[in-house]
Amino acid sequence: MLRALDEVGIEPDLILGTSIGAFNGSVMADRPGQAGVEALTRLWTEIGESDVLQGSRLDRLKNVAAFRPALHETSELRALLEHVHPRDRRIEQLTVPFQCVAASIERAAEHWFTSGPLIEALLASSAVPALFPPVEIGGEHFYDGGLVNSVPLGRAVDLGAREIYVLQVGRIESPLRPPERLHEAALISFEIARRHRYTTAVENLPEGIDLHVLPSGNPVAFDDTRQLKWRDVGSTNALVEGAYGASMAYLDAARS
After folding, report:
1. b/e map of 195-234 (b: 16 or more CB within 10 Å)?
2. b/e per residue 33-58 (b: at least 16 CB within 10 A)
């Protein structure tokens, strides 16, 4: 999607991100345009060919046996982030204005990081419950921003955006259905809660907002187990090419 936007000359004035969108968005905010696209392509390709995300199965088993609140340690995700950002990088130092969101446990509310240490904010925004422990910042604990604002249209509008491009991972393209198995009931319930805010925001967009939801080229069903395999990036090239082709077709049609 980013490659397609760059090739048709669309440059962002503001980048908002949630979870993995915060991670990728921060790279583009730091190196806008082709430089950021190349950096992300290189990063995810190299990660797929290395063991940086493999971690230790023994450590995961220890976490389960000790009844810890997560399967993985925050250090695994931090290692990934430090592939592309210096440890002391701050949000306000990025080239393009950038913000990311996380879910505050104590306040049961969304929290937007607009300044301060970049990697800590990205860790908070990406702390998927059960996969990673909450991230503590300033005495407050945070979980993944997708719990409270997975597609932050309202935030973009409040900050003055009038032309918005949504880069999503494929879930909102897939229809929901009634559950057929016990475990699906929880998955569907969570997906309804997550999509509700987005659909409500779309329905209530002010007049004059030009909204574009880029196609992923790879719709992800609510019960697709791939979304739980966060370290499996072996299909990166295929996913990138699928999204690029679908997004270019969309943008060509939108401009014609």
Report:
1. bebbeebeeeeeeeeebebbbbbbebbbbeeeeeebbebe
2. beebbebbeebbeebbeeeebebeee
Beta strands in the chain (DSSP E): 15-18, 98-104, 109-113, 135-137, 140-144, 163-167, 210-214
Predicted confidence band at 174 (pLDDT cuts at 50, 70, 90)? confident
Tokens of 81: 């982030």
3-state secondary structure of 104: strand
Q: What is the pLDDT of residue 52?
A: 47
Side chain identity at 8, as an amino acid letter?
V
- Nearest in space to 5 (alpha carbons), one of 237, 170, 209, 252: 252
CB 178 within 8 A of CB 226: no
Alpha-carbon Rg for the chain, nearest whole angstrom, is 18
**pLDDT level of residue 136 (50, 70, 90 thresholds):** very high
CB-based burial label for 63 (10 Å; 0-12, 13-18, 19+): middle
pTM: 0.87
Q: What is the DSSP letter of 15?
A: E
pLDDT of residue 235: 75
Cβ atoms within 10 A of the Cβ of 140, count?
Answer: 15
Contact 196, 245 (CB under 8 A): no
Q: What sign results for the dihedral spanned by CA atoms 166, 116, 132, 231?
A: positive
What is residue 239's predicted lDDT score, i.e. its pLDDT? 86
Instruction: Give the percent of the chain with pLDDT over 70.
Output: 86
Residues with Cβ within 8 Å of 126's Cβ and at least 6 positions away in sequence, in order, are: 19, 20, 22, 23, 77, 132, 144, 145
